[in-house]
Amino acid sequence: MSGISRDAAERLRQAGLVWRPETGDRFSVLTEPLAEEVFTVSDMVVERHDHPTGTILGFNGTTEWALDSVRIEDALWLPREDQLRELLGPAFRSLARSTTGWYQVLVEVPGRHEQVFDSENPADAYAEALLTLVHAATD
User: Fold this and answer.
1) Where in the chain are the domains?
2) Fewest CB within a 10 Å sphere: which of 41, 53, 60, 85?
3) Which CATH architecture has domain 80-138?
């Protein structure tokens, strides 16, 4: 299974999803030529450094790109399925596979009803559900 699409991750960011980097988190750099690369926060390669001026992601031992660090504002978090499911909280009901092979996430949209979100990629189905919850909370 693949991770979340860049498009879904960007829409979550625009909707206000805040990232507090932790070991194991995946991200990409927003600028070229590294925009298509996926990095993982690790105590050995990429570390989070909190400073009074903001959080930066430090690259240790990456001679390929001679990249020392990137500001968190210049990185795009690519949340995993488990992280998205946790963000859905008690609204999450289930993840199932449809007869067509797509993944379906069922959530309870507060004040509305249960709603299903379909995608070929389970992380994108979770992201669509989360975006709907965010929009429902701000309407």
Assistant:
1) 80-138
2) 53
3) 2-Layer Sandwich (3.30)
